[in-house]
Amino acid sequence: MKVIKFGGSSLADANQIKKVCDIVLADPARRLVVVSAPGKRNSEDTKVTDLLIKLAETSLADKNCSTELKAVVDRYASIAEDLGLDNEIIDEITKDLTKRVNSSKKNPGKYMDLLKAAGEDNSAKLVAAYLKSIGKNAEYIDPAVAGMILSDEFGNAQVLPKSYNKLARLAKKDSIMIFPGFFGYSETGEVVTFSRGGSDVTGGILAAAVNAELYENFTDVDSVYAANPNIVDNPTPIPMFSYEEMRELSYAGFSVLHEEALAPVFQKGITVNIKNTNNPAAPGTLIVPSYALNEEHKKFPVVGIAADKGFMTLHVSKYMMNREIGFGRKLLQVLEEAGISYEHTPSGIDSISVIIRDKYYDEAIFDKIIKQLYAELEVDKVTLEFDQAIVMIVGNGMTHSIGTAARAAFALSNANINLNMINQGSSEVSIMFGVDAKDAKASVQALYKEFFA
Ligand code: ASP
Is this prediction's pTM over 0.85? Predict the structure, then answer.
């Protein structure tokens, strides 16, 4: 059995949904189908998930939200009409959305998730209805019944291990199963969603649960490229990545696949194939265990370059820091107690930098942290640096090739880019550079030129 996931642009209108169904029907092994909510039909359009967020926000502000509700219903109605479906499905979707809008708003996070999940849920119902209307043995799968059980972290849920055995039962069904992506249910029965783009995660979980022979992830590009095509013109397509390479690139801003989608398939060694709904004949890009990388791939020291803004650095210095047992633990404990998650901690002899996502920045919290560091850890100096970016070059091949770091640093210096940090060694497959956010784009371009042009 193959698990096959389609992103929002593949479900944006009736024409796209027909392509999706043709792709599913072209291979009898494609039986577990994960769908996103309808995405953008063109660059000016709005994704249904964003329409739903707007609807939830308007309703939470106790304003009249009939226009926002109509915008969502209209999207589904026009798709259903173009697919030649009867009114029954639209009545069902309208009732479902109205019920969600009228539910309790006591917990805004819970309310938001209930509304966001409607995008995928109704998309799955629509696709199942269409396949049935053309005489196929298809069914909508309710994640509650199937056992997609998630942690109760609204908007940022994680799968609970007990889901896997329950979801494994889907392998016994003989229909084409249409499973809504992006959400599941908490142990107390509340709807909870993953973070944005989370239908990829649903696909990964299902592929692992049914031990799929392949996880096909259909989007709107022919391949994954060595760099973001919005930053570099016509970047080289990369036919194959290892899980580790893809994970690092997703972390540093590659938007191809959700950062958490690979964890479940990594455990089982299931191959992921990224493909294009608009060009299904193209082979796409494979994501495989590192032992399965082919010789061609190993020739590249670097297979991908990515950059992500949105970081800040907390620099701490203390004379003779290196002699003090437990300094690092105490420093991180201060952050832990303040609820701050850290990303990296490059260090010197008498100094250490803690790199943090700047979404955690809060003036009052950081004032308290800094005071605590001076008072309890008796540090000499603490400074904060904002507007930082992380640039990464990634490649399994760099373990065996000499001079990759030197080439990268040289390329960056040639482009007049000041390096605030270099982090290599802890990961075998990547080198990380800290630069000012304003230099992120130029860094990717300079590194691309060095390794690919
Ligand atoms: N529809 C959701 C989003 O836009 C989830 C997804 O598409 O994967 O984030």
Answer: yes
